[in-house]
Design goal:
Layout (H helix, E strand, L loop, with lengths): L21 H7 L7 E6 L3 E6 L2 E6 L14 H11 L9 H11 L4 H14 L5 H22 L1
Antiparallel strand pairs: 1-2, 2-3
Helix pairs in contact: 1-3, 3-5
Amino acid sequence: MLLAPPKPVILVTNPQSRFVTKAAVAMHLKRSADEIYKVNCWRYVVHVVGKKTSTFVSYADLPPIIGVALPNHRDVRAWRKRWKKYDNTAPLFWYSFYAEKLRQVTTMEELQAWEEVLSYVGFGLPAASRTDLEGICGEMTHFLFSNAA
């Protein structure tokens, strides 16, 4: 008896899967990164398995990061559609996520990369959050320049 060859598995992921990180998922779910065991990027959602939890997260809930392709018009459209449930602003944890990432930078290039990402998503952050993040960028610029000398 001949068996049919196995069908190739075609993994179709969401273009926004490039923004999925364990740190972002943990912050979104208000958990520590150690409590997240597994993050699976499916076609339409992110499946998260962690300590006493198994849940789904929308790709549009997660903030863009450095080191991958910058956000494009499709990403912005997905965020705007998702943010309707947040009064047309980014989820509150985005500010905390970016503040933490900005405080962790070690080079001017990294800081500039984060500033570029923020220039793409700044429209979705409340004015006070944008001002605070700009202040953190200024502090880190001063810190990096003073340590370089």
